[in-house]
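Postdoc handover notes: sequence design on the structure in folder B. Input tokens:
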């Protein structure tokens, strides 16, 4: 069978792979993009609720802070291409962006298709050869270097540089099914344990089992996760929702990144998480506010007085936890009972016993060990001509445009250096 030859072969048509293709082609390389699915950018199309949160506008220190999985590894990457460059790239393609809460950047169109189509058109303008429904079987190596790629069809493609941007194992319907890990291992790489991030947390608390709060949303709360010794692991602000399995939502997604490692590290079955419904107030400040306002309407039942301070569905559960009858009035309420109620508003406990499975997570944590990747070029330290980009690496971020920033930026740097291999050396 005749072998086709390319300067750079990119495996994976997600954000990292598309940006790697653009970057390599801009350097004058003959580029082939291989995607095993029927369309490019499937994960891109569902990002940001279908609106495509293309990046986050925060400054570099905060950007790194929101990449808990080896964020410091990306300093060199961000020196070459960062969130500002992502904004500039899309605006140069004619896509106007807007900044929303917490620095999230979206296309003004509010349509992910706008972003995907613009990138695909740009790749075509640059001469990138895009091949869909072309799954890769393995990479071809010889003498410590990449020599080519073999497709499942048996076709072999010759190249000196391969960018692996095939994703992790989360959101498998987007095509991320862990295909690249065996290729990396064959080249001598270590795969750090995979675990779910940006995912719902499970609980066996009785109020979860009886669906007492299922579907209830809370806004602007703070969740704090503790280790078994009572030491805080993380505190995350934002919105959340109670579910049939436990809790979910943006604040929970950020907390979730720390659950699996903590359960493993401490060898425990559960962790304590607390929800602060009034993070802007200290417990004493909240107590004084609640006490003052309840005194003004002291004749009302406690269940009605609490409607100003708690979602109505939480009231029976909170009163049960402090052994207070819902029909008594304020004058009949013991002072220590009011303090206990306020304490619950600041520290509502949830017993966390795990997360939903990796396949239901938004982000894969773990992956190709970053110690085995050159942070300046994204090239493997184990195999010459092998580059990595995006979620396949042991790099993961919080939701809010941070993961896609990692994908675009590492993709750009990997593609750039894959195209310049001879020059760099």
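Designed sequence:
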């Amino acid at each position: 069978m005749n072998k086709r030859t390319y300067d750079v072969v990119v495996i994976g048509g997600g954000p990292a792979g598309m940006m790697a293709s653009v970057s390599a082609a801009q350097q004058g390389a003959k580029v082939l993009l291989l995607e095993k699915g029927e369309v490019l950018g499937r994960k891109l199309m569902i990002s940001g609720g279908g609106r495509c949160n293309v990046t986050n506008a925060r400054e570099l220190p905060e950007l790194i802070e929101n990449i808990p999985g080896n964020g410091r590894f990306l300093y060199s990457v961000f020196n070459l291409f960062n969130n500002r460059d992502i904004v500039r790239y899309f605006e140069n393609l004619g896509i106007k962006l807007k900044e929303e809460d917490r620095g999230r950047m979206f296309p003004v169109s509010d349509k992910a298709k706008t972003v995907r189509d613009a990138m695909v058109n740009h790749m075509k303008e640059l001469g990138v050869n895009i091949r869909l429904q072309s799954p890769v079987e393995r990479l071809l190596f010889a003498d410590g270097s990449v020599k080519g790629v073999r497709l499942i069809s048996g076709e072999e493609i010759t190249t000196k540089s391969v960018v692996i941007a095939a994703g992790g194992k989360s959101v498998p319907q987007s095509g991320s099914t862990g295909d690249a890990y065996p290729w990396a291992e064959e080249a001598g790489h270590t795969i750090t344990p995979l675990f779910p991030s940006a995912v719902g947390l499970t609980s066996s608390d009785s109020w979860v089992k009886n669906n007492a709060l299922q579907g209830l949303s809370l806004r602007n709360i703070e969740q704090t996760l503790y280790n078994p010794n009572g030491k805080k692991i993380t505190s995350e602000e934002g919105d959340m929702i109670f579910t049939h399995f436990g809790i979910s939502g943006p604040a929970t997604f950020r907390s979730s990144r720390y659950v699996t490692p903590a359960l493993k590290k401490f060898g425990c079955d559960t962790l304590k998480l607390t929800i602060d419904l009034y993070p802007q107030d200290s417990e004493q400040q909240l107590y004084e506010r609640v006490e003052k306002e309840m005194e003004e309407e002291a004749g009302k039942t406690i269940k009605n007085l609490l409607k100003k301070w708690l979602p109505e569905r939480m009231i029976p559960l909170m009163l049960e936890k402090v052994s207070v009858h819902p029909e008594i009035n304020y004058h009949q309420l013991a002072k220590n009972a009011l303090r206990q109620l306020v304490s619950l508003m600041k520290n509502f406990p949830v017993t966390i016993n795990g997360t939903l499975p990796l396949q239901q997570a938004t982000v894969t944590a773990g992956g190709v060990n970053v110690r085995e990747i050159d942070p300046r070029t994204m090239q493997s330290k184990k195999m010459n001509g092998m580059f990595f980009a995006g979620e396949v690496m042991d790099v993961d971020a919080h939701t809010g445009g941070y993961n896609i920033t990692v994908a675009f930026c590492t993709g750009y740097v990997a593609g750039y250096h894959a195209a310049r291999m001879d020059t760099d050396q």
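Context for whoever picks this up: The first strand starts at residue 4 and ends at 11. Don't rerun without checking with the PI first.
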